[in-house]
Amino acid sequence: MRISKQDPNTGFCRDCLTYQEVPEHRCVHCGSPRVLHHRELYDLTVAHIDCDAFYATVEKRDNPELADKPVIIGGGRRGVVSTACYLARIHGVRSAMPMFKALKACPQAVVIKPDMEKYSRVGRQVREMMQELTPLVQPISIDEAFLELAGTEALHRNPPARTLAAFAKRVEEEIGITVSVGLSYCKFLAKVASDLEKPRGFSVIGEAEAVDFLKSMPVTTIWGVGKAFAATLERDGITMIGQLQEMEESDLMRRYGVIGQRLYRLSRGQDARQVHTRDSAKSVSAETTFNSDHADRDTLAAVLRSLSEKVARRLKKNDIAGHTVVLKLKTTDFKIRTRNRRLEDPTCLADRIFHTGLSLLERELDGTKYRLLGIGVSDLTNADLADPPDLVDTDAAKRAVAERAIDKVRDRFGRHAVETGYTFGKNERARPQRDMDAVDPEKGDSEAG
User: Fold this and answer.
1) What is the mean pLDDT of residues 349-365?
2) What predicted TM-score, i.e. pTM, was given to this entire model?
3) Which contacts qualify for 303-307: CB closer than 8 Å, 24 or more apart?
4) Which chain positions lie within coiled-coil regions (predicted)?
5) pLDDT tens digit string along 314-328?
6) Radius of gyration (C-alpha) of the chain in whole angstroms
């Protein structure tokens, strides 16, 4: 059947992929109720694909006896839930919930310790299938990614929407897990759409309906609006996106700084970010080997600050941020000490990287001399999720504004145009023998600085 992209009544069945000329509740060919129609269905090309309850679904695939049982993945040292299947979620089990609370809510649940090697292997299989659809695949985590399918219609002889439905069907048949698909005109709404009908969902949000659709959604729908910032907005009387739509951009920026601009734009469905590929880097780091060994705080702190700024520059340049700050030290006898701390929110700011690293460093100042110092961040994500307002450290916002101002000066006049009190006049005492920037050192992707 030849379809017309101008005909809003033309849809297709997600199970047998048969085109439907008029809206029907069930497929005219196979009788499936999973028939997809949307006025912009064949115009949209940005997708977000998310594996459903990924860890738990893989375990159920590998053990059919678990198919009808609630399954919780977690336990271990932290004693918290990593994820749970949808049966367990019905009972109130949620990710990051303490295990004792999860088992109180769902005492009949089967608890399985995570097998990350297996999940990574399955995640790679799904990723390889995605890359057969389009070269523009932007991984977000082990089990989700953005895809841009513009220009792929000639290759697949299908519009992007139907190509995605065929992909979801293939994953289910060949890998044995399920995925949910969100299709829209921008990344923000593609991600929102993929969460609407889990599991095995396929939701579409078109440009014409975006503002009205978002109007009734809570502010937490917007990336970067977590519990803390949502509480701030609620104190200001803002709980729904529709309220943000009624406010001026200048007012939101005056109240909330840079994040106010994000609130203004995303609340109106405005998201110009492109789907882009990048090496699946696990970390961004910088390290220095000294000409002579050091044990004193002032010297090490000065170098740590300089390295933190280098890491932050690289994060900002690549529009990424990290959840975990990692400190690396090498003693005079070449023993390596690695310390890390996971942040509540990801960061791309030198200030947060440095102060987190400094608190880790101070615990290691026991008189030991070090020949190498490094700092980095891991658990990478998009920078638009980074550094929301801090309700505890109220000066953090001021330091963030100051850092961005310094960035602008350095971009114009050079890296050494502005120095902080930590580094000014102090680096001579710890002049590096080698200064390395690294993205994912496990892959050996590094360059001399």
Assistant:
1) 94
2) 0.67
3) 303/373, 303/427, 303/430, 303/432, 304/354, 304/357, 304/358, 304/361, 304/373, 304/375, 305/350, 305/354, 305/420, 305/422, 305/423, 306/423, 306/427, 307/373, 307/374, 307/375
4) none
5) 888 888 889 899 999
6) 25
**Could you report the per-residue pLDDT of 81-122, keeping only the tens digit for each?**
989 999 999 999 998 899 999 999 999 999 999 998 999 999
> Catalytic residue numbers?
144
Q: pLDDT confidence of 134, banded at 50, 70, 90?
A: very high
* Helices 116-133, 54-62: crossing angle, 10 deg rounding: 100
CA-based torsion, 263, 45, 178, 11: positive or negative: positive
For every residue of 205-260, DSSP letters joined together read --TTTHHHHHHTSBGGGSTT--HHHHHHHHHTT--BHHHHHTS-HHHHHHHHTHHH
Strand, helix or coil for residue 434: strand
Both tokens of 364, joined, read 């290691």
DSSP secondary structure, 318-354, as one string: TTEEEEEEEEEEEETT--EEEEEEEEEEEE--HHHHH
Give the C-alpha separation, 89 to 203, whole Å: 21
Q: Whole-angstrom Cα distance, residue 246 to residue 241? A: 9
> Distance between CA atoms of 255 and 236, rounded to whole angstroms?
10
- 87 touches 70 (CB < 8 A): yes
Q: Which domains does the chain have, with CATH numbers?
A: 1-35 (no CATH), 36-46+120-210 (3.30.70.270), 54-117 (3.40.1170.60), 216-267 (1.10.150.20), 283-448 (3.30.1490.100)
The whole-number average pLDDT for the span 393-400 is 66
In the chain, the amino acid numbered 415 is: R
**Would the annotation count 50 as a binding residue?**
yes
- Do 125 and 265 meet the contact criterion of CB atoms below 8 Å apart? no
In the numeric block, which tokens belong to residue 296?
């004193």
Asked whether residue 260 carries a pLDDT value surpassing 60, the answer given is yes
- Interatomic CA distance for residues 404 and 388, integer angstroms: 14
Q: Is 143 annotated as a binding residue?
A: yes
How far apart are the C-alpha atoms of 324 and 201, rounded to whole Å?
A: 32
User: For residue 372, how many C-alpha atoms fall within 13 Å in the half-sphere facing its CB?
Assistant: 20
**Distance from chain centroid for Cα 397:** 22
**CA gap 372, 377 in Å, rounded:** 17
